[in-house]
Inverse folding.
């Protein structure tokens, strides 16, 4: 950890704080805990049902930050310790959620409960106890772009006014109710509105984060290795799994949807700035993404295939991709966001933050990690004779 007085963006000393981090055992939480332990004096009360992704920070007791991170295994749905832990902290960060698209249309009730109902007590306890809250929402609250409703050949589709997503101007456009894909976005939107209202009516100090496809090591799971064999994680882990097993990458509905991907380590820098600059972050909703890293899902598949060949030393298979319908891949009720480019004006103005890592570089470091972590385990699973 850096020694000496640490200053915020306005030159004021940063006081050490206690942070109650809910969902600390997940992908983003694990990187945020790492950052806070390595580079700040803050204490973390890490709450989650799992801790596999932060075990390296908790053990052994001799780690330099031992005593500054404490794991509490609890489910926020039904644990009376939650309010006490929020009260002990200066700041609460809520990351807990069901947030894999394969669940939105197949487990819509769990999705809505997790993203709205289960977050309610967190907001309430923060508001009642005058505690600051950083809540993780999603870029998916924007839904589809206005441009996606224009005729295919309309020149307006090229105009950023019809697709760049702005926190304080863009509408939230979801599909019909029977497209249960939008259960997640809708629940996230309602909790955003509730937090905003707590700020307006009761003075809650809040920051809302809208991540735009943060990716990197420890994201989700590899089916059959550290997660269920039939599970469907987000695209980075799906494609990593296909590459590790030397099977074609599955392009849902032709892989035409577009995404911007940001490296987890860049994105964590943004959260770090929010934590330590409350005067600049309170009352704000922030897009956090990398507008320069835009690709179609098909292009992502092609780039991952190329990068994986480089880091693994194994040439790609003959037919590296295969088309599948969304119905086949996700089931009934799937729908998709067409394009996601974050407007960066607000985060630039408030926190002077900009992402740094190119898509190629972030895929190279992430796929190096995937190869080192999983290649041997996959080989063993593949070599095992199937029980008859
Ligand atoms: P993740 O699934 O890796 O992490 C979520 C963590 O919350 C998990 O460890 C899970 O065990 C925990 N959790 C869920 N329900 C809980 C409960 N009831 N009690 C205790 N713990 C619980 O996901 P992530 O990618 O780290 O995402 C974190 C947040 O960011 C989520 O709110 C998600 O909606 C949001 N988000 C992430 C991305 C991204 O690009 N990774 C994009 C959009 C939104
Ligand atoms: N996708 C795909 N093949 C896969 C997994 C995902 O083509 O094996 C597509 C999915 O349909 C979506 C995009 O990749 O268009 C990103 O999916 P992800 O699960 O990462 O989440 P999203 O960005 O939709 O929230």
């Amino acid at each position: 950890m850096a020694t000496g007085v640490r200053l915020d963006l306005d030159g004021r000393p940063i006081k050490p704080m206690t942070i109650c981090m809910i969902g600390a055992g997940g992908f983003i939480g694990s990187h945020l805990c790492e950052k806070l332990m390595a580079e700040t004096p803050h204490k973390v009360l890490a709450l989650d049902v799992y801790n596999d992704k932060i075990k390296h920070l908790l053990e052994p007791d001799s780690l330099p930050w031992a005593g500054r991170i404490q794991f509490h295994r609890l489910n926020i749905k039904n644990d009376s310790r939650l309010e006490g832990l929020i009260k002990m902290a200066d700041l609460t960060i809520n990351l807990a959620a069901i947030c894999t698209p394969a669940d939105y249309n197949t487990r819509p009730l769990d999705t809505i409960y997790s993203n709205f109902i289960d977050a309610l007590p967190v907001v309430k306890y923060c508001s009642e106890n005058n505690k600051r809250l950083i809540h993780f929402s999603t870029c998916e609250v924007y839904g589809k772009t206005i441009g996606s409703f224009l005729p295919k050949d309309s020149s307006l589709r090229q105009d950023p006014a019809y697709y760049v997503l702005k926190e304080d101007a863009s509408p939230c456009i979801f599909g019909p109710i029977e497209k249960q894909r939008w259960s997640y976005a809708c629940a996230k939107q309602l909790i955003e509105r509730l937090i905003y209202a707590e700020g307006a009516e009761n003075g809650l100090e809040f920051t809302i984060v809208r991540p735009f496809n943060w990716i990197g090591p420890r994201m989700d799971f590899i089916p059959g290795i550290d997660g269920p064999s039939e599970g469907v994680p987000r695209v980075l882990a799906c494609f990593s799994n296909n590459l590790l097993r030397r099977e074609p990458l599955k392009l849902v509905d032709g892989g035409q949807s577009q995404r911007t991907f940001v490296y987890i380590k860049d994105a964590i820098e943004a959260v770090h700035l929010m934590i330590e600059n409350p005067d600049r972050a309170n009352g704000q909703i922030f897009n956090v993404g990398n507008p320069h890293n835009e690709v179609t899902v098909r292009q992502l598949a092609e780039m991952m295939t190329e990068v994986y060949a480089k880091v693994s030393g194994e040439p790609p298979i003959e037919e590296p991709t295969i088309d599948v319908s969304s119905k086949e891949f996700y089931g009934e009720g799937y729908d998709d966001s067409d394009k996601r480019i974050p407007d960066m004006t607000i985060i630039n103005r408030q926190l002077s933050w900009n992402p740094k890592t190119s898509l190629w570089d972030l895929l190279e470091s992430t796929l190096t990690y995937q190869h080192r972590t999983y290649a041997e385990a996959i080989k063993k699973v593949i070599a095992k004779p199937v029980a008859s």
